[in-house]
Amino acid sequence: MCPFHTPACTGGLALTLDESQYALGEGPCLQAARATTIESVSDMATESRWPGWTVGALGAGVRSSLSIGLPARATGGGALNLYATDPHVFDAGTVDVAQVFASYATLAMANDHLNDAQVTLSQHVSAALDSEAVIEQAKGIIMGERRCTPEQAFAGLTTMARDTNRTVREVAHAIVEHTAETAGQ
Fold it and tell me: What is the pLDDT of residues 95-133, one digit of tens each?
């Protein structure tokens, strides 16, 4: 499975060309992303570095491309890709402008990456707190039924979990659910 994907594009042609590179494992986008370089194809008709991809690009009507690798440390890796239907479109001035845009895209992607990491961490903390709450509830139920200490109740939970090949949280949830159901009857 290719670790790359296209998080944003300007249209179907760009997405198709990117996905073609992912499927083939070759192309200017992948080269730029892997090596954090600038890969310019001035004319697909004369390009020989990525023959499988170039044939498809020409068939789709693309004659030139520009891929600017984004720093992997900030973004997790990637490239800004530009495609054109005419050859020799990406001159030095265009490359300069694209590099400036790529630096802003890198910042946006780094911020998005940090946001995703924070959301994931928050979800893990929330799940851990939920697990802790249900375990404490189950311990309380066991302590009330068996008249035992919290440590003994937890030992009972772990034994039930081991004997039924489930997690302590799953066993605790089942106990709490069963108690709630029987209390409602």
Answer: 999 999 998 888 888 887 788 888 888 888 887 777 888
CATH number at residue 131: 1.10.10.10
Q: Are 29 and 79 in contact (CB under 8 A)?
A: yes
In-domain check, residue 1: no
Is 172 among the domain residues?
A: yes
The HSE-up count of residue 110 (CA atoms within 13 Å, CB side) is 11
134 falls within a domain:
yes
Could you write out the DSSP letters of every residue in 76-145? SSEEEEEEESSSS---HHHHHHHHHHHHHHHHHHHHHHHHHHHHHHHHHHHHHHHHHHHHHHHHHHHHHH
Rounded CA gap, 88 and 64, in Å?
A: 7
- Write out pLDDT tens, residues 157-181: 999 999 999 999 899 989 999 988 8
DSSP state of 45: G
Q: How many domains does the chain have?
A: 2
C-alpha 162/C-alpha 155 separation (Å) is 11
Sheet holding 64-70, edge to edge: 38-41, 64-70, 78-84
Residue 110 included in any domain: no
Using alpha carbons, list the distances in angstroms from residue 62 to 41, 42, 46, 65, 85: 10, 11, 13, 8, 4
Containing domain of residue 40, as a range? Answer: 12-90
Per residue in 53-74, pLDDT tens? 999 999 999 999 999 999 876 5
